[in-house]
Design a protein that fits this description.
Layout: H1 2-16, H2 24-104, E1 108-118, E2 125-128, E3 141-143, E4 148-155, E5 160-164, E6 178-182, E7 189-195, E8 200-207, E9 217-220, E10 232-241, E11 247-254, E12 263-268
Antiparallel strand pairs: 1-2, 1-12, 2-5, 3-4, 3-12, 4-5, 6-7, 6-9, 7-8, 8-11, 9-10, 10-11
């Protein structure tokens, strides 16, 4: 026991006394502890980093979904904006047209949306969203901003069918002829047919001495009590001598395009007083 006590005191002296460096047992313990810490610390840091990356990935995915929705919403609103803008521009043009016409004639022009188009060449018609409940009647004229399109051939409560000028046929017993005149001179003729190949209207029964010429603007004369006067038909493309040399025949280029319509105008002319 005495020897052990002396040995303990000597060791305590070495430990508590001034030293320059560590003893080899202390170095061994320090290195061992550092190695063990490294072995456990690195995997633990990797695992912690993995779960942190998973959390960030989830946040990135959620943010990506939000951005996708925002882009889709922007695209939809952008398309809707351009559609409304184009419609607004079209209505502005229509308004200018109706104002100019109303200053000239006492007509009311009501916009109508085109619901469907029948492309049958023998029965080219379209359906609009105005009907009897809106005051539409048979044989009312329908026009675009550019020129006359056709006449109302059937009226329902909420919709109407429009027969186009392209269906004019001189062989049709029920054909709709249009009395026409040049806008700037005393002339007269009948628009009676449409050539499907040339896409031109034919104006006949023009007096031989009529001053009609190429480039003249042709409008409806109002004669006949069906088509109101002043409806723009088209412009003269050429003038030829008619049958037997007693009359002239003019080829008319239609003012209306007869395609890609979205909105048309129904012409509400004052009703003729019944006798």
């Amino acid at each position: 026991m005495l020897i052990g006590l002396v040995t303990f005191i000597i060791l305590m002296g070495f430990t508590l006394g001034p030293r320059v460096g560590l003893t080899w047992p202390e170095k061994f313990v320090r290195d061992t502890v550092g190695f063990v810490q490294g072995v456990f610390y690195k995997p633990a840091s990797y695992i912690a980093g993995f779960f942190e990356d998973v959390g960030e990935l989830k946040e990135v995915r959620e943010e990506n979904e939000r951005l996708k929705k925002a882009v889709a919403e922007y695209a939809r609103e952008s398309a809707e904006y351009h559609m409304i803008k184009n419609e607004n521009e079209g209505l502005k043009d229509t308004l200018k047209f109706t104002q100019a016409q109303m200053e000239r004639y006492e007509y009311e022009y009501r916009p109508a949306n085109v619901l469907s188009v029948n492309q049958d060449p023998n029965n080219h018609t379209l359906v609009i969203d105005l009907g009897a409940n809106d005051g539409v009647r048979m044989n009312m004229s329908v026009t675009s901003v550019d020129g006359m399109v056709g006449v109302i051939s059937h009226v329902g409560n909420f919709t109407s069918t429009v027969k186009l000028l392209t269906t004019l046929d001189p062989q049709d017993a029920k054909r709709q002829q249009i009395a026409a005149t040049a806008s700037d001179k005393d002339t007269f003729g009948i628009i009676e047919s449409f050539d499907k190949k040339t896409r031109m209207l034919k104006m006949t029964r023009i007096p031989e001495d009529d001053p009609i010429k190429k480039g003249d603007l042709i409008i409806s004369s109002g004669s006949g009590g069906v088509i109101p006067r002043g409806m723009i038909i088209g412009t003269v493309d050429k003038v030829e001598t008619g049958e037997f040399g007693l009359t002239k025949t003019a080829t008319i280029r239609p003012a209306a395009s007869f395609q890609d319509w979205k909105t048309l105008l129904v012409v509400f002319a004052p009703e003729e007083p019944k006798g």
